[in-house]
Amino acid sequence: MIEVKDIFKSFGDNEVLKGISADFKPGVTSLIIGSSGSGKTTLMKNMVGLHEPNSGKVFYDGRDFTAMDTHERKDIRQEIGMLFQGSALFDSMTVEKNIRFPLDMFTNESKAEKLDRVNFVLERVNLAGKNKLYPSELSGGMMKRVGIARAIAMRPKYLFCDEPNSGLDPKSSIMIDELVQEITQEYDITTVIVTHDMNSVMGIGEHILFLHQGEKWWEGSKDEITSTDNKELNDFVFATKLMETLLKK
Amino acid sequence: MVFYHFGKYILMLKAVFRKPEKMSIYKNEVFREMVDIGLGSLGIVSIISVFIGAVTTVQTAFQLTSDLIPKSIIGGITRDSTILELSPTICSLVLAGKVGSSIASQIGTMRVTEQIDALEIMGINAPGYLILPKLLGGVIMIPLLVIVAIALSITGGYLAGTASGAVSSAEFIQGLTTDFIPFTLVVAMVKALIFAFIITTVSSYQGFFTKGGALEVGAASTKAVVISCIAILVSDYVIAQLLL
Question: Whole-angstrom Cα distance, residue B87 to residue B84?
Answer without folding.
Answer: 7
